[in-house]
Specification:
Blueprint: E1 2-7, E2 24-28, E3 37-40, H1 46-52, E4 60-64, H2 75-87, E5 98-103, H3 104-117, E6 131-136, E7 141-145, E8 148-154, E9 163-168, E10 173-176, H4 184-189, E11 195-199, H5 217-227, E12 231-235, H6 243-251, E13 258-261, E14 267-269
Parallel strand pairs: 3-4, 4-5, 5-6, 10-11, 11-12, 12-13
Antiparallel strand pairs: 1-2, 1-14, 2-3, 7-8, 8-9, 9-10
Helix pairs in contact: 5-6
């Protein structure tokens, strides 16, 4: 598998911290030169960030949203841009189906979202390509590509409908937390994965035990340890804590695998057990 980090920050970077864009990750599950992309979250500017990373937005056939907060889900903008690509003649709409996976509550609210952004179309997102919506409940599984399973667990995020994602193939496994507090479902989704990309939006030492909204680096490390993950990328942080302090905090959990503080532009190629 190949992962490209296109957004590792939060909704805004505090003064004096490096700019990091909101969450966006592109995963290529193919073992051949022809990519098979799954996009995780679709924050603002996804269309241009993909192109800047030499990933054709029209090649994205599967989009998995973790939850509806705006820093993760600028969905109408991405759908509109994709439809405009068809309208400008770059491709034929029938060849560009997009599968959208998102929590069931969010899926049920989609008609209101489309009516808000394009009221003249009466709740229809686009007629220029096929958009297949997959409502996601706890334990959801789907096969987006042969021999590749996409699965989800419902996680705690302060009452918002939220899921964490896992991709499993014969060659590698990957998990993405989305936004989550400490919960057993997050441990389950990351069980024995080769790479676990986990949010660490709470600061080092911040007490998050009763909030169930975000994780500290140490909590992320503890979940990775309990899950038996092989490598951990800390993401969705605002930059106020030094990277070394975040890594030390995660390591204090007892997690013995590789730890990296993800930055925009980071790439990884990983395989089972490597």
């Amino acid at each position: 598998m190949k992962l490209v980090a296109l957004g590792t920050g939060t909704c805004v970077h505090p003064p004096g911290t490096p700019r990091r864009l909101p969450p966006l990750f592109a995963l290529d599950v193919s073992e051949t030169p022809a990519p098979q992309w799954i996009l995780f979250d679709v924050s603002e500017g996804a269309r241009w960030r993909l192109a800047d990373a030499a990933i054709d937005p029209l090649a994205i056939a599967h989009l998995a949203l973790s939850h509806p907060h705006p820093d993760h889900a600028a969905l109408p903008q991405f759908v509109q841009a994709r439809a405009c690509e068809v309208g400008f003649g770059r491709a034929v709409g029938a060849s560009l189906p997009l599968a959208l996976y998102l929590p069931r509550d969010c899926a049920q609210a989609l008609p209101d979202l489309w009516r808000w952004h394009a009221p003249e179309d009466h709740g229809v997102p686009t007629t220029r390509f096929d958009l297949a919506v997959h409502p996601v409940d706890d334990g959801f599984t789907h096969t987006p590509f042969p021999d590749t399973t996409l699965s989800a667990r419902t996680v705690e995020h302060g009452g918002a409908p939220a899921v964490a994602w896992r991709v499993q193939s014969p060659h590698a496994s990957f998990a993405y937390s989305g936004d989550s507090g400490v919960c057993d479902a997050l441990v389950d989704i990351a069980r024995d994965v080769d790479l676990f990309v986990c949010e660490a939006a709470a600061r080092v030492g911040e007490d998050q035990r009763m909030r169930h909204r975000h994780l500290t680096p140490r909590q992320a490390g503890d979940i990775a340890r309990r899950a038996g993950a092989r490598a951990l990328w800390l993401t969705h942080y605002d930059g106020r804590d030094p990277e070394a302090a975040m890594i030390d905090d995660a390591r204090a959990s007892g997690f013995a695998g590789t730890i990296r503080v993800a930055q925009d532009g980071h790439r990884a190629v990983f395989r089972r057990g490597a």
